[in-house]
Amino acid sequence: MRFRRSGVGSAALAALFGVIGGAGSWAVLDTAGHGGARVPVQEQRADTVEPGVVTARAVDISSVISMEGRVARGPGGFVATATVAPAHLYRFIDAPRTAQVKIVDGPEPFTCRGVRVGADPADPSGDVLLTCSIPGSVKVFAGLPVKVAVRTGHARNAVAVPVSALSGTEGTVHVTVVDGRGGTTRRAVEVGVVNGVLAQITHGLEAGEKVQDPSADAFADGSAGLDPVTEAAP
């Protein structure tokens, strides 16, 4: 199963992709306090705060979605089921085969296999449901609340930038590329795996190129860039 992603505006990007994922960070030009630890420092020139600049870097990136659901009776035994928010469907690059399920106030998390994602024909609202088969060795009861996590995409050595560096309109996503002389060019890109922090750029940007990030509390030169990030798969 594949869902084709379309470009959206910057506010919508934050709504679509600002959900549970991994963690990411990027280097900054300066440090301050906190025992010498590197922390973002925002620089101000001529009473204006300029946008930060980050460097696209190659990283391993995964998209993991967490949902709340419940235990239900299925044709062959108990299943875990959860409603998939419409915005989360943009993140289903790969069709998940397994999920990690945790019964609230219950046993340890376990692997739930046979994941199925689709509309419930019995539900007139048209909600998309994720369902997986609970192993017979796990003692459960219908109606128990559960938390379900699935990995919806993974890319190795992917060119990535912060989600906040993306902008665009319906059908197109852009980044603002900064050249060696400080000039800027708005460039269309294609987006792949996205988590709550980073976005994979599948076309339109190369590792080492610099882009503006209006949300970054940093100024960058050749020293700034993304720290490699790898998310744990469920």
Describe the structure.
The protein is mostly beta strands and 234 residues long. It folds into 2 domains: 10-62 and 154-213, conserved putative lor/sdh protein from methanococcus maripaludis s2 fold, CATH 2.40.420; 64-153, Efflux pump adaptor protein, beta barrel domain (Elongation Factor Tu (Ef-tu), domain 3). The protein has 1 helix and 14 strands. The protein has one helix spanning 10-17; strands at 44-45, 48-49, 52-55, 57-74, 77-84, 98-103, 110-119, 128-133, 145-162, 167-169, 172-178, 184-194, 198-203, 210-213. The strands form 2 sheets. The protein has a 6-stranded antiparallel barrel. Strands 1-2 form a two-stranded antiparallel ribbon. Strand 1 (44-45) and strand 2 (48-49) form a beta hairpin.
The succession of helices and strands, N to C, reads HEEEEEEEEEEEEEE
Q: What is the overall number of helices?
A: 1
Quickly name the level 1 CATH class of the largest domain: Mainly Beta
SS-based class: mainly beta
CATH topology of the largest domain: conserved putative lor/sdh protein from methanococcus maripaludis s2 fold
CATH architect. name of the largest domain: Beta Barrel
Distance between the termini: 19 Å
The total of beta strands comes to: 14
Please describe the structure with a list of short key phrases separated by commas or semicolons.
mainly beta; conserved putative lor/sdh protein from methanococcus maripaludis s2 fold; Elongation Factor Tu (Ef-tu), domain 3; 2 domains; disordered N terminus; disordered C terminus
Per-chain topology:
Blueprint: H1 10-17, E1 44-45, E2 48-49, E3 52-55, E4 57-74, E5 77-84, E6 98-103, E7 110-119, E8 128-133, E9 145-162, E10 167-169, E11 172-178, E12 184-194, E13 198-203, E14 210-213
Antiparallel strand pairs: 1-2, 3-14, 4-5, 4-9, 5-8, 6-7, 6-9, 7-8, 9-13, 10-11, 11-12, 11-14, 12-13
